[in-house]
Amino acid sequence: MATNNFPKGFLWGGATAANQLEGAYQEGGKGLSLPDVLPGGKDRMKIIASPDFDFKINPDYVYPNHIGIDHYHHYKEDIALFAEMGFKCYRFSIAWSRIFPNGDEETPNEEGLKFYDAVIDECLKHDIEPVITISHYEMPLHLITEYGSWKNKKLIDFYERFARTVLTRYQDKVKYWMTFNEINSAAHFPIMGQGLTISNGAGDKKNVYQAWHNQFVASAKAVKIGHELNPDMKIGCMILYATTYSYDSNPKNQLASLQDNQANNFFCADVQVRGHYPAYTKSLLARQGVQLADIDYNDEELALLAQYPVDYIGFSYYMSSVVDVTHENQETTNGNLMGGVKNPFLKSSDWGWQIDPTGLRIALNQLSDRYQKPVFVVENGLGAVDKPDENHYVADDYRIDYLREHIEAISQAIDDGVDVMGYTPWGCIDLVSASTGEMSKRYGFIYVDEDDEGNGSFNRYKKKSFDWYKKVITTNGADLA
């Protein structure tokens, strides 16, 4: 399919996260962060969810985040490859513990800031617009072990100091920011975004909602700081979005899918984009066994939320979800930190995530209709087992097919009238998976020679999708063949 409706200046690029590719976990003055104590492997979430999980490094486990893909020492090479593909932007994150090793220091770590000076300048040298996530599934470990993580209101001030430091440092170099990655993922796995698991309070849902409130306030403060520093700065939220269908026309399933959407897709964005808690907040909390009176908030914080909503909605989209509350023993499927009932109309990835390009068109329309603000697809992609040939070449036609169909869906959404800012496929270079800590779950246009234990040459090799995506960008989405 040929498309020619992508606007001039559309932000084609790719996305990564500091904790999944940088490595160098104890270099440059960096402190320990949450991912540094998350073991790799398919049992990662099971281990973390144990009541005995102690946030310590266990010598019996492998910790792939310690190494990542050693981007810390390869960033010039990696950004040059992104430039060769023609990236207009590059979405990455700043590791909080590189800037404030413990998170509660008064002054930042200059060596950490100089690393990001270099990364940002390297992007700008290649005419690549940096798109920075301030906090992406990592936080200084000290803030978890000493303060109890985001359920503690003190973290608002610590985050504000971190945000002010980087926003001030890069106010003239970076236009696009996001405050928290997939903030709503805490509905299912609060460990990644909030630093909460069963062993430190996640079992009590009021802690999750308190943590969210504190993050909403912190996000509003970041918007305030950014807009005061540079009125042209655009600061967005970032949510995980799984287009959610009712299994059938049974009104019970229809109601359940509506409530599922409220709880999983909309709640966090409603607060951050609209600037106030939605009307359904009380009933949503009640369904979780939480009373509004359980949440510590005040009028000053609510005023801050109202005055400083985000400028755009960044979101990840990998798959859709199906809700069914009327049948028992339905076959289920996996997903991006959440699953659902198997959809008989869809195929699945190697990891059981259901592939649904039309769901992306629906998501774009739903978000645009609800918020009337620009939307930015900042994660999308296919995690697969890539098998390179003897020349390290990966013929990843399956990935090209996936991306082509999703880009077509974006084009159709633009025809529907949706204001789409850009598209940054996830893991544009192979990196460590957030959900399993594996290297074998690969997303990139660039193959990194490294296995799940961190062994390999770390050499970079272009996959077939590299040249395909280069053509897509060169033609501004007109040639997807």
From TrEMBL:
One of its GO terms (biological process) is carbohydrate catabolic process. One of its GO terms (cellular component) is cytosol. The keyword Hydrolase applies. InterPro entries: GH (IPR017853), GH_1_N_CS (IPR033132), Glyco_hydro_1 (IPR001360), Glyco_hydro_1_AS (IPR018120). The keyword Hydrolase applies. The active site is at E379 (nucleophile). Gene3D superfamilies: Glycosidases (3.20.20.80). Belongs to the glycosyl hydrolase 1 family. GO terms for molecular function: 6-phospho-beta-glucosidase activity. PANTHER family: 6-PHOSPHO-BETA-GLUCOSIDASE ASCB-RELATED, GLYCOSYL HYDROLASE. It is an enzyme of class 3 (hydrolase). Pfam families: Glyco_hydro_1 (PF00232). This is 6-phospho-beta-glucosidase. Its EC number is 3.2.1.86. It comes from Lactobacillus helsingborgensis. Keywords: Glycosidase, Hydrolase. It comes from the Bacteria.
